[in-house]
Write a structure and sequence with these properties.
Helices cover 61% and strands 3% of the residues. The chain has 175 residues and is mainly α. It has a two-stranded antiparallel ribbon.
């Protein structure tokens, strides 16, 4: 699928998610069909999915903080408006679950982007070129009490080894 078509599809799905969140949040209490899960878990799941889709569709152009922040504001507005819907009661715990869900969905997409960018930067991983991780070097790392240490600058000069993008963790891989 072309990148432009995928981005357009994700942006359309973001609009659908926002519309469904609004509709389901403001639906009168007697018309609601519950899943059987606790309310905060429903809020978390709905906003995690919406946050992931929204960040995937808009994140590169609009910024992750702006996209997730917009969902937080939207969740707050919907919680406030629930006091005007019969049978609905606004709750701070529901807002917190919604905000945390949006954050977790956004972070999941962000980490997936980082992982894909790293694979692309390394030239991709194919079954014949998959790097083997040397876990012995990880066990000797200073934060685990071992004497092994190397800087990120030495990792970039060695053609056979590279450091992890995770701060404070130095995983050595061999090709």
């Amino acid at each position: 699928m072309r990148a432009g078509l995928l981005r357009t599809s994700l942006r359309f799905l973001t609009g659908v998610c926002v519309g469904l969140l609004g509709l389901l949040s403001l639906l009168p209490g007697q018309d609601m069909v519950r899943t059987g899960f606790p309310g905060p878990l429903e809020h978390f799941a709905a906003y995690a999915g919406s946050g992931a889709i929204a960040l995937a569709g808009y994140g590169l152009n609009r910024g992750a903080v702006r996209v997730i922040g917009s969902l937080w504001v939207y969740a707050g507005i919907l919680e406030y408006l629930q006091q005007f819907s019969p049978g609905q009661n606004p709750a701070l715990v529901d807002f917190a679950a919604s905000a945390f869900g949006a954050l977790c969905g956004g972070v999941a997409v962000f980490l997936l982007w980082r992982w894909r960018a790293r694979l692309h930067w390394d030239g991709g991983i194919t079954p014949s070129s998959r790097p083997r991780t040397d876990f012995g070097a990880l066990a000797e790392a200073p934060f685990l009490g071992g004497a092994y240490s190397r800087s990120a600058s030495s990792a970039s000069t060695s053609p056979n080894m590279r450091g992890s993008w995770l701060a404070g963790i130095d995983v050595v891989t061999r090709r």
